Model the fold of this input.
Amino acid sequence: MFKVKITAIRQTVYHDLMSAYENPIEHTCDVIAGQVWISENGQRPDGLCPSAWESMRAFVESLARGEGNFYDGWMKNPMSAMISCNDGFRPFSFYLEALTE
Done:
């Protein structure tokens, strides 16, 4: 199995949706752009948000098994994927890449 590098790339915040639909909350996300985790054996790395993990888990597991090329050529690097967490108000985008060497 390959290790999979997970890099937090960017967070988008939809203030209009938050003000229209979300109850005010004080704490939302601990992820910081540039943060990196390494998944071994397709498992969730320590410190990675469990909710974000659920959004990317199937892709990480596939990459760990060497099964890239999602959607027939979607990514320039076929052993990678760009996945966002499932927070509809402030989603974070993560770049997943199999470490093949």
Summary: Strands lie at 3-11, 36-39, 80-84, 92-99. The first strand starts at residue 3 and ends at 11. The chain has one domain: 3-99.
